Amino acid sequence: MKQILRNSLLIGGAILGIVSVGAGGYVAKAATTAPTTSTTPETASAAITPGTITIKAAPSIGFGTVDSSADDTSYTSTSFSSGLQIANPGEPTGWTVSLADTPFTDGTTGGATLKGASLSLADSSATPVKADDADNVSTLPVFTAATPVSSAPVTILNAATGTGVGSFTTSYGSGDATLKVPAGNIGGSYTSDLSWTLSNAPA
Q1: What does the pLDDT look like over 70-114, one tens digit per residue?
Q2: Are both 100 and 24 inside the same structural domain?
Q3: Whether pLDDT at 31 is above 80
Q4: Which residues lie below 8 Å from residue 202, measured CB to CB, with a gap of 6+?
Q5: Which of 25, 47, 140, 181 is deepest in the core (most CB within 10 A)?
């Protein structure tokens, strides 16, 4: 018990700090201590609401004025009005873009059609689809060359769940479409309607 008491007194002396002030006199002075700091845990929060996935641009395709042929022939496109551009502002569901066409019909000859004609698309660039922002951290959607396009939709771009977030463009070159026309068709000014369809789900 005495040992415990003596240790307590020594600790008390250390805390008070015994200082000599002159001829035999003593005074107790409170010791100074370093200031203490404390932190309160806080958070930074952000509620980011996904937007609607949209087609920002889709191309029309031109083949120009070409000569008809007595044999099977293929025509190469001369122009695309734009690339195929998709914007996904944060939706995690994945998505698909498909393409379908209608028969090539001549509006000047009473509705004649290019019988057996077939449209196909490719992409001659080394990277068919690119993110519009260089620092995009999402996985790119998958590009598929559509061969051939028909009235039944064919997949052009497919983003799996959790991928394809951001803005992406497939930039077609002027010669990336081919129109195959069998022998036996008559000349005319033909047009096909292209339907680019966006589905809010992966293929």
Answers
A1: 999 999 999 999 999 999 999 999 999 999 999 999 988 678 999
A2: no
A3: no
A4: 93, 94, 95, 96, 158, 159, 160, 161
A5: 181
Residue 42, in any domain of the structure: no
How distant, in Å, are the alpha carbons of 13, 63, 77, 154 from that of 177?
Answer: 94, 9, 5, 15
Choice among 57-61, 145-149, 151-155 with the minimum mean pLDDT: 145-149
Rounded Cα gap, residues 187 and 175, in angstroms: 22
Nearest to 171 by CA among 65, 76, 57, 30: 57
Q: Which residue has the tokens 């129109």?
A: 179
The DSSP secondary-structure symbol of 139 reads P
pTM > 0.90: no
Range(s) of the domain holding residue 6: 1-32
Q: What are 62's two structure tokens?
A: 């031109």
Flag whether 163 is in a domain: yes
> Quick one: the chain helix, strand, coil %, rounded to 5?
5, 35, 60
Q: Is the pLDDT of residue 137 over 90?
A: yes
